[in-house]
Amino acid sequence: MRDVRAHEAPLGFRLRQAQAPDADAMTEVLIAAWHAGFSGVVPTGLEPPVEQAADRLRQRLGDGAIAGTVAEADESVCGFCVFGPSRDPNAGEDIGEIYQLFVTPEVWRSGVGSGLIEQATAQLRRQRNRWVTVWTFAKNARASHFYANAAFAQTAPSDVVRSTATPLRSAVGGRLTLRHDCQGATAAPRARPEIWT
User: At what angle do helices 50-62 and 23-37 cross, to 10 degrees?
Assistant: First the structure.
């Protein structure tokens, strides 16, 4: 999973393969984006613990459990995307998943997020995935709009996440699972969501 090709994203942002030493900078981006993007969606105080989030990213990038791309501007990480095989136990072998995509709020709407998602879907396609999934909180209209613009379509109705009770899952209520056809066909139904089980 180490075949990310560095290239320039719109507005001068550079995309490159994420490495374990990037974990601290990636976590700074995660926390900044979490506070700005989830305000009103996730109650205050439920963000991931910084040290644990950094350690988890460092370990998983280091052992190859996940692949990732970072966006840099002026040699500082300003966004990242981590991805790999679907974690859904019912998913086929041709389904990849975007696990996290975060961009610092200062560069939202600059092309960084779009560049990261294009890089992730291209790499997952090279790994012979037909579909890429991502989930977002049902109440997060900004994220839903972003993914719709990237040709992701809702695959199932709002899914109330209660199977593993955590303060975060209890607080946000539901989530949306979105799917993208990374082999070139459109992720068609936006107005009438396709139910995918």
Answer: 130
Report pTM: 0.78
Percent of the chain with pLDDT over 90: 35
DSSP letter (8 states) at residue 21: G
pLDDT tens for 163-176 read 343 444 444 445 55
In angstroms, rounded to a whole number, what is the distance separating the alpha carbons of residues 46 and 34? 10
Selection from 99, 112, 96 nearest residue 181 by Cα: 96
Count of all residues that appear for the chain in the document: 197
Q: What is the DSSP string of 23-48?
A: HHHHHHHHHHHHHHHSTTTS-TT-SP
* The residue to which tokens 């095989």 are assigned: 85
Residue recorded with tokens 């994220």: 143
Q: Which two tokens stand for residue 16?
A: 């490159």
Domains and CATH numbers, the chain: 7-181 (3.40.630.30)
Rounded CA-CA distance 80/135 in Å is: 16
pLDDT tens for residues 126-151? 988 888 888 888 788 888 888 888 88
